[in-house]
Design goal:
It contains no helices and 14 strands. The strands form 4 sheets. The chain has a 5-stranded mixed β-sheet with strand order 7-14-13-9-11, with no helix packed on it. It has a 4-stranded antiparallel β-sheet with strand order 6-8-12-10, with no helix packed on it. A hairpin with a 6-residue loop joins strand 13 and strand 14. The N and C termini lie far apart (77 Å). The relative contact order is 0.17.
C-alpha cells in the first residue's frame, strides 16, 4: 500500500506488507485524515496482479468561519464586483457539502454610502459558497464589508473603491509643465 497523496492521509500504524490466507483484515489497515480535504489516492499493489489506485474522499470538518473575497478585487466607483462568502472549516478547507447556510452581506455604517447591492443582501450557500453583487455609487474610498451567518466567525473585507476619470472630466484641461 502506498499513499499517493500524502498531504491528505497517513496510516495510523505501519501498513502490513503480507496477507494471511489471501486476506487482509481491515483492522490492520487504518487510515487517518490530515487537515486538508480533497480526493486522496492509495496505490494497492499485490505481486502477480495488476496494481490499482483507490480514491478516497477526505471531507472537510464542520463549518467554523467565513472567508469573504471580491472578484475583481477592486471596485470602480461606477462598476460592480461579485462578493463571495466561502464557508470554511477550522483548517481552512471549503465546506463543499454546505448548501443551506444563509449568509448576510453588509457594509459598515461608516462606509455603506460607497456601494449598493444588486438585488438581495443575503444568499444561501451552494457547495459552500454564497454570492452577491455590489455596485459602486460614484464615490471613491474604502468600503468595509462583512459576511455573517449564525454560529460562524464573520468574514471581513476592506474593498477599495476607485473613481474613474472619463474624457469629459479632463475636457479643457491644459496641464502646464516647467522644464529646466
Amino acid at each position: 500500500f502506498t499513499i499517493l497523496t500524502e498531504d491528505l492521509l497517513d496510516f495510523v500504524a505501519k501498513a502490513p506488507d503480507k496477507m494471511v490466507h489471501g486476506e487482509l483484515h481491515e483492522a490492520n489497515l487504518k487510515l487517518r485524515a490530515k487537515t486538508i480535504s480533497g480526493d486522496a489516492e492509495l496505490l494497492v499493489s499485490v505481486p502477480g496482479f495488476v496494481a490499482e489506485t483507490v480514491k478516497i474522499a477526505v471531507q472537510s470538518g464542520p463549518a467554523t468561519n467565513i472567508e469573504l473575497i471580491a472578484t475583481p478585487e477592486m471596485l470602480e466607483s461606477n462598476g460592480s464586483t461579485t462578493l463571495k462568502a466561502r464557508i470554511l472549516d477550522k483548517n481552512g478547507n471549503l465546506v463543499e457539502d454546505d448548501n443551506t447556510t444563509i449568509v448576510k452581506f453588509l457594509a459598515t455604517e461608516a462606509t455603506k454610502e460607497l456601494i449598493e447591492f444588486d438585488g438581495e443582501e443575503s444568499a444561501v450557500t451552494l457547495k459552500g459558497v454564497a454570492t452577491v453583487r455590489v455596485r459602486g455609487k460614484g464615490s471613491s474610498g474604502v468600503v468595509n464589508l462583512k459576511a455573517e451567518a449564525p454560529d460562524l466567525k464573520k468574514g471581513i473585507l476592506p474593498l477599495e473603491v476607485n473613481g474613474v476619470i472619463t474624457k469629459e472630466d479632463i475636457k479643457g484641461f491644459a496641464p502646464r509643465v516647467l522644464y529646466t
